[in-house]
Amino acid sequence: MRILSGIQPTGLPHLGNYFGMMKPAIELQQKGEALYFIADLHALTTVRDPEALRRNSREIAIDFLACGLDPARACLFRQSDITCIPELSWILSTVTPMGLLERCHSYKDKLAKGLHASLGLFSYPVLMAADILAYDSDLVPVGKDQKQHLEVTRDIAVKINELYGDIFKLPEPMIRDESAAIPGTDGAKMSKSYGNTIELFMEDSPLKKKVMAIQTDSTPVESPKPLDGSPILGIYRHVASSSDYTAMEEAFRTGGTGYGDFKKRLLEGVRDYFAPMRAERQRIASDPGEVERILSNGAEKATAFATPVMDRLRKAIGLR
Ligand code: ADP
Ligand code: TRP
Question: Which terminal CB of the chain, N or C, has fewer other CB atoms within 10 Å?
Fold first, then answer.
């Protein structure tokens, strides 16, 4: 089974990205041939700072490796290193009905957020279809917001197969359960666009500042605290052992502990959970050549997967 997913380098990974995407992706590397890439071509639709794009792409690669992605098992690469992807995207665009893209809500959402209506933003799902179809992917783990893009991918694949014969494998989406989305420091879903994130490997002092600034209500120290919607509990649940978590829940229920104390426990929990990964990160980051080698090797392997698919397609459509 070939598993494929991508992440845009639009910022540094935060706890939501880790528990929602990176951790499950890393676990999946045991289940089949995993291909994970940094979607830098997609990020060009919104990122205008070249240094930030390069830096974030590199940092995400290092974070993935530090968190347990094993380059001997999974293939980690930059989207832009796979030169057939823009070509495939173009070919797919020639059979993609305008109406299919016009219906995509992520495009409409981005315009509503004030983004410039560029052709790239509009055809974003076609590039994503190219990412998926190029490698004969079987399974594509994504968040709910990407579900429609998977449907577009399947529609485009069916269209090509109807026109030219059996070219593409139809990928299955694996939609993550987002009922357990990680809350941000303000209690809403943690997201770069809400400015409420805690980055994975923050230095100690900014990390402390962020955790201590988590929004809380004005329940007095001695009173029981509401459990529902508490960002402290929502994050702690992921980093603490189940007994520590239960103890915190109990302390919320009985009262007598202030939010400041809960935040200190949470800070300890986050520090402890990521301590081994932080050490591994330092080791990896100290050898930039090694990170580059891993990404180049990944790109080479991914290209080898894409080559027979592209040969099949080019031949079928009359290019060779
Ligand atoms: P952001 O909302 O910060 O821009 P992205 O949309 O780039 O994050 O998300 C990248 C991946 O991380 C997606 O697969 C998404 O489902 C996952 N993810 C992002 N935020 C959270 C969260 N708060 N909880 C769980 N998963 C999340
Ligand atoms: N659009 C995805 C996101 O914003 C990233 C992405 C690009 C992707 N190409 C992909 C995800 C292919 C899965 C498969 O999260």
Answer: C
